[in-house]
Please model this.
Amino acid sequence: MIKFEDVTKIYPPSTVGLERVNLHIEKGEFVFLVGPSGSGKSTFIRLLIRELEPDRGRVSVGGRDLASLRSWKVPYLRRNIGCVFQDFKLLVNKTAFDNVMYALVVTGNATGASKRKAAEILSLVGLGHKAGSYPNELSGGEQQRVSIARAFVNHPPLLIADEPTGNLDPDTSMGIMQLLYRINKTGTTVLMATHDREMVDRMRRRVIALDSGKVVRDQKRGGYGED
Amino acid sequence: MGRISFFFKEALGSLRRNFFMTIAALVTVFLSIVVLGGVLVFVYTSDALLKQVEEKVEITVYLKDGGEPADVTAMQGEIQGWVEVESVTYITKEQALERMREWFKDNPEVLEGLSGNPLPASFEIALKDPQAVAAVAGRIDLENPIVDDVRWGEEIADKLFAFTSQARNFMLIFIVLLGIVAILLISNTIRLSIFARKREVEIMKLVGATNWFIRWPFLIEGVTVGFIGAAAATVVALVLNNYLAGWLRQNIPFLDLPLDAVPYVMVTVVLLAVGVGIGAVGSAIGLRRFLKV
Model:
């Protein structure tokens, strides 16, 4: 699903984003990306959605080398990668329903069937009754659910979550984790960058730890810290 | 819900939401186009005025007394045949005197002492292109025994043409400068409004919207603002022009101004097109920075 081959990214003049990263994530895996701030987690994610391009090495997603992807095709790549962020990134002047709809409309799916789909997926994340609410009328946890619904509505093969629980209390975080877990069960590869030590330790999934741009640990059923 | 209706809904929605930005852009378009409209009206009117003055330039060929009528007819025919010449009118000695009497009808004593008719007969040559006056005048054969003299106010004509061509250049430069200022002003206003929505554009890109998908609603917004602003400005400019024309006609009647020279339809079309164009270009320029990557 995801393949990094000797990937290096330097931010000018000489800040290391990633350095000689090699790794392989299989289809259907659930992977935690951990490490302190500035360790390269965000760089990793921005390379995946081609917000950045590596200085050296090769990044492929779904068997496709991103360097060979023409820039007008980048939107089509992103439709196949659901993204969830710490700050939710919802369109503030659209209702929960319209935010989810937006992800469908950009793909040219604005039919009655897609409206049903949007409504269904909101019920699935437990927000069927709040479809008409605007983001500022929703709690943080609810906003993150809307954002997950939007990321998942196109059934992308890959879902990336960048600190999705960073702004949420532990109980709400647990709910979000369960949602991601269920999404993973449908066969979607989930990559989650996080600081949440407790969560990682509880889930016992593959853990990739970054430090100063290098992979310092890659463990099948790991915890947040060294065992 | 079709894609196009989605774009329109998005555009109108955000025009309503960003109410103050919309108003700011509208006012900018409105003011720029009122000024542009005013300048256009002024250009058309003064151009017609210049043409009026230019048309008064004509050549007079004075003829010697006692020329053969056949020679006179032959010469008239020859001049009439030149491409630059609009018309040649033969004024007989009697007609010249009659005209003189007409001019001085309030002081007939001026002409009382005249014995006989001292005025020469003449050709009055009107030109298709007044600028050709020197060339045409130069071609008239002074050796011809019936010709006495050729007059065409050479100095006045030269100065007049120098002035009118300079005036036209000046107005052209003014219009171009004004257009540039308007585009800068408007694209800046639109850029501000787009900057305020930078986050929105970022999110759209993350969700996988293509650049054109993001661009359309913004373009529709810009064009709508441009059109409405320009329409209001056109109405104001033309109403103001009519009002001013009426006032001038009433208060300075002796100044023979060509006040109907403004082609309203043309001006309306031009102003609306400029408004719409500026709106679209402004949006496109404003968006460009945010659409990268």
The CA atoms of residues 24 and 180 of chain A lie 21 Å apart.
